[in-house]
Amino acid sequence: MITLRFDSKSFNKKMNNVINYSTGFVDGVQMGKKDFFENIGPEVVQIASNFIDTNARVSPETLHHVYEWYKVGSPSARLFDINYTVSNIGLSFISVFRQSRTVQEGGTEPFVNKARIMEESRPVVIAPKNAQALAFDINGEMVFTKKPVVVSNPGGQTQDGFEKAFDTFFGRYFTQAFLKSSGLAQYFENPTSYKKNLPKGSRAGRSAGISTGYRWVANAGVIR
């Protein structure tokens, strides 16, 4: 008769540790998400801003309003900021417009709320402030008028131009191209840290899972 000795107590302990390691890994991932978002937020802001710069150089007629005069697509001349916040919901991005500081050729003052007015295509009323009349150079001819002048579409083709570029990045490019090109999609599809630390997890259990999951998420970043 053949007798086999099986250490069921040791086996059960190892299996319980593996299960606890796995559930700890998931909990560690949740704990590490905030640090991951804080790390990735500035990267995404920079890439999104560069994306809009590139589109502005390709299509200046739709995005010239979110840059200082005559500097369309220049990072140093942006009239917009993209900010991010990390919350319980996740990672969120919002854009705000800056005030223009430069003066258009022929003018004397910066265009107040230039980016927002042109983005929303708000009519602009120009009236004399410290003079009896307004003076305009139209096709080389100086024109004077005492009446306020209404510019119904000060931005030309700029209406919703920035919003469309912003939505294109976060609505399509970010999910379809950025996650792949940055290496993040491949990174998260292959949790190699989980496999690598599984032997340790079979001994230490939940604590090893939490630390492994946390580091795996928190250390994720853009591959340049």
Walk me through the structure.
There is one protein chain. The chain is of the alpha+beta class and 224 residues long. It folds into two domains: 32-120 and 156-192 and 210-218, no CATH class; 122-155, no CATH class. The chain has helices spanning 8-58, 60-63, 114-120, 161-181, 184-189, 192-196, 198-204, 206-218; strands at residues 80-86, 91-97, 124-126, 134-138, 141-145, 149-151. A two-stranded antiparallel ribbon has the order 1-2. It has a two-stranded antiparallel ribbon with strand order 3-6. The chain has a two-stranded antiparallel ribbon with strand order 4-5. Helix 1 (8-58) packs across helix 4, helix 1 (8-58) crosses helix 7 (198-204) and helix 1 runs parallel beside helix 8 (206-218). The protein is rod-shaped and about 100 Å long. The mean pLDDT is 84.
What is the strand content? 5-15%
The helical percent reads 40-55%
What separation lies between the terminal Cα atoms?
65 Å
**How many β-strand stretches?**
6
Written as H for each helix and E for each strand, in order along the chain, the element string is HHEEHEEEEHHHHH
Strand order of the largest sheet: 1-2
Shape: rod-shaped
Q: Tell me the domain tally.
A: 2
Evaluate the radius of gyration: 29 Å
The structural class is alpha+beta
Instruction: Give the low-confidence spans.
Output: none
Total of DSSP H or I helical runs spanning 4+ residues: 8
The overall pLDDT average reads 84
State the major sheet: 2 strands, antiparallel
List keywords for this structure.
single chain, 224 residues, 2 domains, two-stranded antiparallel ribbon, 6 strands, 13% strand
